[in-house]
Amino acid sequence: MKLIKAGFLNAISTSIKIISGFVVNKAVAVWVGPSGMAIIGQFQSFISMILMVANGGINNGIVKYVSEYSEDEQNRKKIISTAFCISLISSIFISVLLIIFNKQLALFLLKKSYFNSIFIVLGLTLVLFSTNTFLISVLSGYKEIKKFVAVNMITSLVGLFLMIVLVYFFRLYGALLALAVVNSVVLFFTLIFVIKSHWFKISYFIQGIDRESVKKLSKYALMTMTTALTIPVSQIIVRNYLIMHISMSSAGIWQGLLKLSDAYLLIFTTTLTIYFLPKYSEIQDKTQLKREVYSGYKIVLPIVILTASLVYIFRESIVRILFEDSFLPMTKLFIFEIVGDIFRISTLLVSLLIIAKTLTKWFIFFEILSSVLFILFSVFFVNQFGLIGVTYSYALLYFVCFLLNFMVVKIKLL
Length: 414
What we know:
By secondary structure, this protein is an all-alpha fold. It is 86% helix and 0% strand. It has 14 helices and no strands. α1 (2-54) crosses α3 (73-100) and α2 (59-68) packs parallel to α5 (116-141). The longest helix has 53 residues, at 2-54.
């Protein structure tokens, strides 16, 4: 029942985020087209990578240990203070690099040097960005789901407002600028909720860095840094390959499909993460752990399959409503994208267990392997079948990932 309750509360927030995302996609599709969508995709992948690195890669570690030390205030205080210091130091360091190399980054990622000011803005606001992510992770660790939901709702609405206004006036530049600043602006709303929390005390943030806490968080930092330097990088490489070997518009159409998958799967990925990561961390008994995993599959998979099937059935209407006619070639790509989506959620249920139980080496191995396989599969299938080949790669990748993750979890933990 707690899973259903968490899912219901998160569904409210996620529904707003999905609707906001759909409105944004429509605006971007109409005003910048498939080519602009490809550039935005490159920047989104870069931001995803940078934010994880700037936060020290410890978000999941914060969730785990704040939850685990629910009855141990002293250790909880050490974890929060250490995590805050790591986030602050990391984000300042990355900010300096972004500002120094702004022109090179603009040329490499966005293909235009006049986008360099976007990276300067991102650098100047990154500390706020990182602090917001840190505070949200603490909220999740304390299982303050209502506040977690409220913050996510505000993020979606502020993001929607900024994106619409900036894209309308500045087109592609405005879209990139909105992505660079939205989470920094949201920090001020997050603070309102956090300050009212029973656990919020200034003393929690000024304890300095505890060596033992660093060791604990470093395992999660390794896992997150691996994710930060594999998934977004592999997407950037594949997107560049599509741009070079097919066209910028084709890369934009694939980016639109990725956004659609991310949007409708968001309610599953966020609900499973905020529920299962703390839950898996608390459970020590193997029998109980196995029961929790299998109950997750029984509840979640039928809903995922039904949702994915509906998306496939109404794919043409979805593309027309959410994008525009220039994106209609996307409809030919749906079938294997949908298959990949189902295996993606199946993989998430067991990969969260690997994170919760700190199987660091296995997690890093799977992240590197999946990214390398995605690039190799994509190059092979795109060469053989054209743009649809990238969806063959996606489906095959997550099928392989599910088998490997489940096998390791079965042997090591269940």
